[in-house]
Amino acid sequence: MKIINVGVIGVGNLGRHHARIYTELPGVNLAGIVDVNPSQLEKYAGLYKTTGYLNFKDLIDKVDAVSVVVPTALHHEIGMEFLSAGKHCLIEKPITLTVEEGRE
Q: What percent of the chain lies above the pLDDT cut of 90?
């Protein structure tokens, strides 16, 4: 079975559930999580036995796919970084703040 390396950007109210579910899926490795809150990051990195990063760019080369679970204003910036690197993205809704960003 091929292992898919995934990451979660933002481990707040919803993101922590993305991380938990990834750890429960066969064939999935939670390669890392990202959060700007160091205590949140440490808590969930320890709980899910993964690496925590303060900067989402540190995760790009370590994953095949990510969940982007941050405030909507950051969806476009973060999503485009991962998409431009050829990564698959699950982006919480709304996907972006504007229709133009969404089309991009």
A: 98
**Is the pTM value of this prediction over 0.85?**
yes
Strand order of the β-sheet with 65-68 is 52-53, 28-34, 4-9, 65-68, 88-91
Torsion of CA 62, 67, 73, 78, to 10 degrees: 20
Q: Which residues pair with 9 in a beta bridge?
A: 34, 68
User: Six-digit token pair at 49?
Assistant: 């036995």
Contacts of 63 (CB under 8 A, 6+ apart): 5, 6, 7, 31, 32, 82, 87
CA 11 – CA 41 distance, rounded (Å)? 7
